[in-house]
Each structure stands twice: as C-alpha cells, then as structure tokens.
Amino acid sequence: MSTRILVVYYSATGNTASLAEALAKGALDTGAEVRLRTVAETAPPEAIATNPRWQSYVDAGPRAELASLDDLEWADGVAAGTPTRFGGPASQLKSFLDSTGGLWAKGKLADKVATSFTTASTAHGGLESTILAINNIFYHWGAIVVPLGYNSNHLLESGNPYGGSWVSRKSAEPDDVALEALRLQGVRLATITGHIAAGLRAD
Predict the structure, then answer these.
(1) Which tens digits make up the pLDDT trace of 52-94?
(2) What is the pTM of this model?
(3) Do 116 and 163 meet the contact criterion of CB atoms below 8 Å apart?
(4) Residue 86: φ, ψ to 5°
(5) Beta strands in the chain (DSSP E)
(6) What interhelical angle do 176-202 and 15-29 show, nearest 10?
(7) Exposed, middle or buried: residue 120 (CB in 10 Å: 0-12, 13-18, 19+)?
(8) What's the CA gap between 180 and 160, in Å, rounded?
(9) Measuring CA to CA, how many Å separate 97 from each of 79, 104, 180, 181?
C-alpha cells in the first residue's frame, strides 16, 4: 500500500498555496499518493476588498478541492499550512482543524505523521509561533510531529527548522529557495510517514 499524504492549507493571496504545491510535489517525488486540499474562505467580503491581491485570489477561485474530514482520516501523513495572523494560524485553517474532534475521539488521528508551514509579510511576524501553534493541535491528536530540521545546506539557507516558511516582503511571491525547502519538507514527511505506516500495518 502506498503512503498517503494530505496537504491542507489556507491561502489568501496565493503564497501559501504555492508552498503547499511545492510540498505536495516533494511527497509525490517519493511515490506517495497525495491529496492537495484547501479550506473555505470565511472572511467577510468587505475585509477581502481591502487587499487587491486577496480580492484577485478569491475571484480566481480555489487552486485545490476543499478539504474534508474523510481526507484527513484517509491520510497517513498530514501537512498543514497557513499565513500567519497576529502570530497564529488563520481562522480559516483553524476552523477546519477545530472540526476534527469526532475523529480524535475515535482515535482516528493518533499516530499520523504531521508537519506544518507558513507565510508572513515580515521577518518577525510570527512564523515560528504560527507553526508551533499548529503543532499544538497535532500533539493533542497524538500525531508524530516532524519538523523540517536542518538536514542539508539548503535548509540551513532557508532559515527555519520548525517548518517551511516564506517572508513575503512587499507582496513578493515565494522564491526558489523557499519552494525547494518546501519540496524537501514534502520528501521528509512522506519518507518518514512511509516508515512509520509500514511498521503500524505490520503490527
């Protein structure tokens, strides 16, 4: 049975979506089966209209199918991504994660392998605290949290061992350094998930 990876994200302007796509590619490179999913936009139209890039992204429509709890139950490994909002995850992603109580109560989320990633507009705008906040949810699930780490010279350059990230100064799109870090995070997630899932199935 192939390793099953769910990449679920919220993106307001497309930057987090680009990171998610790079991570999904890394998981696919290992031969894993991957589902790339987004979550519903719940911000009021008047808030979206204050940011032209946000409005344009919403008008273009989602770049992935909407995530469901079935996707989460299906997955052996999960990557969750969000822009940082005041040092924490966006409410759109948090709302989806908050809906997982039923699966948690049935033990369906225990032993899944999980990782997280984020974007921000400033270097000290909460990248690390956002990743750690998402990971807190994974701990409650009983998941096995896998950080990005500093496992190559490239990852030393990318600057964040907690999880892939991108600082979008002046609305800049993710560069090749950030996208490669996310691809490597996908490889790492799928590889470790494959080892763990194989052991659990053998038991």
Answers:
(1) 999 999 999 989 999 999 999 999 999 999 999 999 999 999 9
(2) 0.95
(3) yes
(4) 55, 40
(5) 4-9, 33-38, 65-66, 77-85, 88-89, 113-120, 144-145, 165-167
(6) 50
(7) buried
(8) 13
(9) 12, 11, 26, 24
